[in-house]
Amino acid sequence: MTHSEENYLKAIYHLTSVLENEISTNAIAEKMETKASSVTDMLKKLADKDLVHYKKYQGVSLTNKGLHSAKMIVRKHRLWEVFLVEKLAFSWDEVHDIAEQLEHIKSEQLVNKLDAFLNFPTEDPHGDPIPNAEGNIIKVEKQLLSELQEKQTGICVGVKDTSSEFLQYLDKQGISLGSKIEIKSREIFDLSLKISINGNEMTISNKIASNLFVRKV
């Protein structure tokens, strides 16, 4: 596959995780920041390679072959993110663009050795699951911080918004994966939360709480 074909497969895979129905060309075009006509041309190529099911005006879905291929691309991307953070001391807001380049490396042997070198991580630095060599994913029970009730506590296990701006904000607030967060109170007016994080109290907006995944403890 070309880099472009791999990028499209990954985009369809990510859209499939948030949309229940078949994926429209317009949704893919928005995700890829391109024209719908360009998407249609690419979908025909992917269909010819048995990577997607595509019918004009009816949307697209991944074939079993396409799903596995997409998972392997995601696997490489997220393993490289772990490597960059854990071994090269990149911050979690810096690694996405670099991993976008590294995910196109073809060597399966290299990826499997990288996985072993990192001791087979199941999540990337943002808390997203890493498919194993067979494409299987270990799912972690999680919910948004905004869904917790007063006096409940959760451990931060991921972020919904992976933008650099949001991750940098979390760094400034001392919020990271593994942070223990207790809901102290909730403002009725704007749903902002007073929280205790690792023993320190602060107030965060509902928008922030709605982009933090936690595992309730």
Features:
six-stranded antiparallel beta sheet, DNA binding, iron, 217 residues, SH3 type barrels, Arc Repressor Mutant, subunit A, globular, DNA-binding transcription factor activity, 3 domains, two-stranded antiparallel ribbon, 8 strands, Fe-transptr_FeoA-like
Which helices and strands occur, and which strands form pairs?
Elements lengths: L2 H16 L6 H8 L3 H13 L3 E4 L3 E4 L1 H23 L8 H8 L5 H10 L25 E2 L8 E7 L4 H10 L6 E7 L6 E5 L2 E5 L1 H4 L2 E5 L1
Antiparallel strand pairs: 1-2, 3-8, 4-5, 4-8, 5-6, 6-7
Helix pairs in contact: 1-2, 1-4, 2-3, 4-5
Function: In the presence of manganese, represses expression of mntH and mntS. Up-regulates expression of mntP.
Subcellular location: Cytoplasm
GO molecular function: DNA binding; DNA-binding transcription factor activity; protein dimerization activity; transition metal ion binding
